[in-house]
Design goal:
By secondary structure, the chain is of the alpha/beta class. It has 23 helices and 32 strands. The strands form 11 sheets. It has a 6-stranded mixed beta sheet, with helices on one face. Strands 27-31-28-30-29-32 form a 6-stranded mixed β-barrel. The protein is globular, with a radius of gyration of 24 Å. Bound molecules: ligand MGD (2 copies), iron/sulfur cluster (SF4) and molybdenum atom. The site of one ligand MGD has 38 residues, from helix 6, helix 13 and strand 27.
C-alpha cells in the first residue's frame, strides 16, 4: 500500500535487485480499482533518492553533522533525556508527531505510550491535529456523535463541501475522488461547494458559492436560518434525537439572507437556493482545512453538525452502517447518539494563554511559546517524529527562536528536512514500502470527526513489506525508536490496542497491551495485537492480497435502544455565545483594508503532501515552488505580472513568492500552499524552494480560546513587486 496519506491506496510494486523501480495502482483492488495519485507513483524515486537519510547524524558545535551509529545515537538521546527529566521533570519532554508517521499506526501509538511511561502525559503530546482541524473533535463532543455514522457520500442525494477539496487532498474521499464525485453527480447528487476558488471538486457541482474567506460560520448560520424559518427539517428525527431546537432557532434568527449576503459576499437568492437544495435530499455538510483555519473552526463544525442533524445527514435504523467496522472491534451500531460532553477541563489549566486541558493534548500552535516560556513544564527536549515544524508550525521566526533554545531537538525523518537541519540528532526511519501495512488506521480515523477519512465500505486490507531498506543502511522504524528509548530509560510501555472512540465515549474501550521490554516484538506481532477483538480477524483479511469488501457481513443499523436518553445538542451554550459574537462583529475576524487588501488562504498541491515530495525529482522537480495565486484582475490592479517575484506582507511577517494568475479564484484572495520554503537563517530562493507562508502567521496573535489554534487562514496581506 502507498501510505503517504490516509487514503492507503493498494499498489503494485515492481522490484528489481531488491529496489522498488515502479509503482502503479492495483487494478485488482475491489475498492480502488487501480487508483493512485502522482505521489504514490513516485514512491520509487522517494525510496531510492540519493539524499535519503540512511544513517543517523549528530550535530557538531559548528552546526555541521557527523555520522553516528543509530544505536549509539539513541543511547545518547536517552542519556540527555534522563538528565533533563532529573532536573526539570518529565513535563520538559515533548513529542510532535507528523504526517511522516502516518505510514504505520504503531508510530503514534508508541509515541503516546512513551510519553505516558515517562510521566509526561498527553499534555506533552503536540499532535498535528491541533494545527489541522481540532474543531472537528471538539464540536463532535459538544454536539454528540451519531453512532451509526454519516450518510455515505456515494449514496447521498445532496452534499455540501465547505472549504474541502477532496479531488486534490483525498480527505474524506480516499478512493479516486474525482471519479466518485463525477459518478455521484451523474446519479443525481446535488453537490454544493463553498470555496473562494472554483476547485477541481467544484467542477461537477450543482452550485459553487465563492464566499468571502473566513465567513463560513455566518454562511452556515444563514443556511440554518432558511431551513428553520421555512420548516425544511426532519421534525420527527429532531423530536426523537435532539434537543435545543428553540434556542438554535432564536440564535440564527438574525442571520437573515440579507445579513449573510452582506458579510459573506454571496447573493441572498443563492444562499436561499443552496439551503433549500441541501434540505431537499439526504446528505451531509462537511468542512475542510480552509475555513477551519479562520479561528472559528469549532463553531463552523458545530453548525455543520446541526445542519446534518436537522436534515437527515445521519444513517437510520435499518440502513447500512455509514462507517462499518472490519479491523476495528465488533460492535452493534444503533440509530442513536453518544451523549455530548465537555471536551475541556477548566480545573486543569495549561501553562499558557489561559488555555484549559483538552482531549486534544498539547496545543501545537503554542509549542514555540511552551519552549520559550520559563517555569515548570517548560519544554526543553522535543522529538519531531515524521514532522517538519520549521515549515508546518505557524510563525516560522518564532519556531526558529524556540528551537535554538532547546537542550535537545531530535528529528526522525527520511531526509534533512527544514527541521532536521536544526536538530541535535537526526534518526533515519524506514519508508512506507519497507514495512507491512494494515488499513485499521484509516478505518479508525473516523473518530477524529466528520470527513476525516474512514471507509464508507466494509473494506480491509493487509500488505506485507515490498522491499527491504537499502543494503548497508542503519535505519530504525519510528515505533522501535520509542521502544528503545523507553528501554534505555527503564520505562515499561503499555500500548492501547484497537481503540474505537475518542474523548470520553467509546464504541468499545481499547485493550491495554503491556509490551515485553526484554525482547522487542515484531511489527507484525504488534499489528496482530492492535487488531485484538476486530470484527474480522487479521488472519482472515491477510488471505485477500488485493483487499476485500466484507459486504457479506451484516452492517444493518439497529433501532434506538429504548433505554437510551442521549440527545444531540443543538444549543451548546459556548457555541451559541460564539455565534452571537460572530453576528455582532460581522464574522469576528479582521477584514482586508487599504493597507492589507488581500486575504491569504490555504490550498493543497496534488504533487506533494505538505512538505513531503518537494525534493522528489518526479514530483517537486517539475515545479519546486508554491506559486502565489491571484485573480488576473488583482494582478492588474496591483501592477504585478504573471510569473513576477513579489513581496507578500502580513501584519506579522513577510515572504518572497512568485505571482501566478488564476481566473478561478475569487478576487481579493491570495491562495498559496504551505510547508514550502527554507528556514529564516537560510538564503531565500522563491523559484527553487518556494515561500514559507508560516512566516505570515502570528502564533502569539489571535488564538482559539479552547485549543489554542492560531489564525492560519483568511489573513490580511499586501503584495508588491520585489524589484
Ligand atoms: N500555513 C499553513 N500551515 C499549515 C497548514 C496550512 O494549510 N497552512 N496545514 C497544517 C496541517 S493540516 C498539517 S497536518 C501540518 C503538517 O505538518 P507536518 O506533519 O509537520 O508536516 P509535513 O510536511 O507533513 O512533515 C512530514 C515530515 O515527515 C518526513 N517524512 C516523510 N516520509 C517519512 C517517513 O516514512 N518516516 C519519517 N519518520 N518521516 C518521513 C518528511 O521528510 C517531513 O519532514 O501543517 C499544518 N500547517
Ligand atoms: N495532495 C495533497 N493531499 C493532501 C495534503 C497535501 O498537502 N497535498 N495534505 C493532507 C492534509 S495534512 C490535510 S489536513 C488534508 C486537508 O484536506 P482539505 O481540507 O480538503 O484541503 P485542501 O485541498 O487544501 O482544501 C481546502 C480548500 O479550502 C479552500 N479555502 C481556503 N480558505 C477558505 C475559507 O476561508 N473558506 C472556505 N469555504 N474555503 C476556503 C481552499 O481554496 C481549498 O480549496 O489534505 C491531506 N491531503
Ligand atoms: S499519496 Fe496518493 S497514492 Fe498514496 S495513499 Fe495518498 S492518494 Fe493514495
Ligand atoms: Mo493536516
Amino acid at each position: 500500500m502507498c501510505k503517504t496519506c490516509l487514503a492507503y491506496c493498494p499498489v503494485e510494486v515492481t522490484v528489481e535487485n531488491g529496489r522498488a523501480v515502479k509503482v502503479v495502482g492495483d487494478r485488482q483492488s475491489p475498492l480502488y480499482k487501480g487508483y493512485t495519485c502522482p505521489k504514490g507513483r513516485a514512491l520509487p524515486e522517494a525510496h531510492n533518492h540519493p539524499d535519503r537519510l540512511l544513517h543517523s547524524r549528530k550535530r557538531r558545535v559548528d552546526g555541521t553533522f557527523e555520522p553516528i551509529p543509530t544505536e549509539r545515537a539513541i543511547g545518547e538521546v536517552a542519556d540527555k533525556l534522563r538528565t533533563i527529566i532529573d532536573e526539570h521533570g518529565p513535563e520538559a519532554v515533548a513529542v510532535y508527531p507528523g504526517n511522516g508517521g502516518v505510514n504505520n499506526p504503531l508510530n503514534i501509538n508508541m509515541a503516546m505510550a512513551f510519553l505516558q511511561a515517562i510521566g509526561a502525559g498527553m499534555e506533552r503530546f503536540f499532535s498535528v491535529q491541533t494545527i489541522d482541524q481540532p474543531g472537528k473533535v471538539i464540536a463532535q463532543a459538544l454536539h454528540g456523535r451519531w453512532i451509526a455514522g454519516p450518510q455515505p457520500f456515494h449514496k447521498a442525494e445532496t452534499w455540501v463541501l465547505v472549504g474541502a477539496n477532496p479531488v486534490i487532498s483525498k480527505m474524506g474521499l480516499g478512493q479516486n475522488p474525482g471519479q466518485v464525485i463525477k459518478e455521484a453527480v451523474r446519479n443525481g447528487m446535488k453537490l454544493i461547494v463553498v470555496d473562494p476558488r472554483e476547485t477541481e471538486s467544484a467542477r461537477h457541482a450543482h452550485m459553487h458559492l465563492a464566499a468571502q474567506p473566513g465567513q463560513d460560520p455566518t454562511l452556515l448560520a444563514g443556511f440554518l436560518h432558511v431551513i428553520l424559518t421555512e420548516g425544511l427539517y426532519d421534525r420527527a428525527f429532531v423530536a426523537e434525537n435532539a434537543r435545543g431546537l428553540e434556542e438554535l432557532t432564536e440564535a440564527v434568527a438574525p442571520f437573515t439572507p440579507a445579513h449573510v449576503a452582506s458579510v459573506a459576499g454571496v447573493p441572498a437568492e443563492r444562499i436561499i437556493e443552496a439551503a433549500r437544495t441541501f434540505a431537499g435530499g439526504r446528505g451531509c455538510v462537511v468542512t475542510g482545512t480552509g475555513p477551519h483555519f479562520a479561528l472559528h473552526g469549532t463553531l463552523l463544525e458545530y453548525l455543520a453538525l446541526c445542519l446534518n442533524t436537522l436534515c437527515g445527514g445521519w444513517v437510520r435504523a435499518g440502513e447500512q452502517n455509514g462507517q462499518p467496522h472490519v479491523l476495528l472491534p465488533d460492535y452493534q451500531p444503533r440509530a442513536q447518539p453518544m451523549a455530548p460532553y465537555k471536551p475541556w477541563d477548566e480545573s486543569r489549566p495549561g501553562r499558557l494563554h489561559g488555555l484549559p486541558a483538552t482531549i486534544m493534548g498539547g496545543a501545537t500552535g503554542t509549542l514555540a511559546d511552551e519552549i520559550l516560556t520559563p517555569g515548570r513544564g517548560q519544554v526543553r527536549a522535543l522529538i519531531c517524529a515524521g514532522s517538519n515544524p520549521m515549515v508546518s508550525l505557524p510563525d516560522q521566526d518564532r519556531t526558529l527562536k524556540a528551537f535554538r533554545e532547546l537542550d535537545l531537538l531530535v528529528s526522525l525523518d527520511v531526509e534533512m528536512s527544514n527541521t532536521a537541519r536544526l536538530a541535535h540528532y537526526v534518526i533515519p526511519d524506514y519508508m512506507g514500502l519497507e514495512t507491512p501495512a494494515v488499513t485499521q488506521f484509516t478505518e479508525a480515523s473516523k473518530y477524529y470527526g466528520l470527513w476525516t477519512q474512514g471507509f464508507e465500505w466494509p473494506y480491509a486490507m493487509y500488505a506485507p513489506a515490498a522491499v527491504e531498506p537499502p543494503a548497508g543502511s542503519d535505519v530504525i522504524e519510528m515505533w522501535q525508536f520509542f521502544y528503545e528509548l523507553a528501554k534505555h530509560l527503564d520505562s515499561e510501555l503499555v500500548m492501547y490496542a484497537n481503540a474505537a472512540g475518542a474523548g470520553e465515549h467509546w464504541d468499545k474501550l481499547p485493550e491495554t497491551v503491556p509490551l515485553d521490554m526484554d525482547r522487542r516484538p515484531t511489527t507484525e506481532a504488534l499489528y496482530e495485537a492492535m487488531c485484538t477483538g476486530s470484527r474480522v480477524p487479521l488472519a482472515e483479511v491477510k488471505k485477500h492480497p488485493h483487499g476485500r469488501i466484507y459486504d457479506d457481513l451484516d452492517h444493518t443499523v439497529l433501532p434506538r435502544d429504548p433505554d437510551c436518553d442521549a440527545r444531540l445538542e443543538l444549543a451548546d451554550a459556548t457555541m451559541l455565545s460564539e455565534l452571537a459574537r460572530v453576528y455582532e462583529k460581522r464574522g469576528d475576524l479582521p477584514q482586508p483594508d487599504g493597507e492589507y487588501p488581500l486575504l491569504l488562504t490555504p490550498r493543497r498541491t496534488n504533487e506533494v503532501l505538505n512538505s513531503i515530495g518537494r525534493t522528489n525529482p518526479r514530483l517537486g522537480g517539475k515545479r519546486p515552488y508554491n506559486p502565489a495565486f491571484l485573480n488576473p484582475g488583482d494582478l492588474e490592479k496591483f501592477g504585478v505580472s504573471d510569473g513576477e517575484t513579489i513581496r507578500i506582507r502580513s501584519r506579522h511577517g513577510e515572504v518572497v513568492g512568485i505571482a501566478r494568475g488564476e481566473a478561478r479564484l475569487r478576487p481579493g484572495t491570495l491562495s498559496m500552499s504551505h510547508c514550502y520554503g527554507l528556514n529564516p537563517d537560510e538564503e531565500e530562493r522563491p523559484s527553487r524552494e518556494g515561500a514559507c507562508t508560516a512566516r505570515l502567521l502570528d502564533a502569539g496573535g489571535d488564538l482559539d480560546p479552547i485549543f489554542g489554534q492560531p489564525r492560519m487562514g483568511a489573513i490580511p496581506v499586501a503584495i508588491a513587486s520585489a524589484d
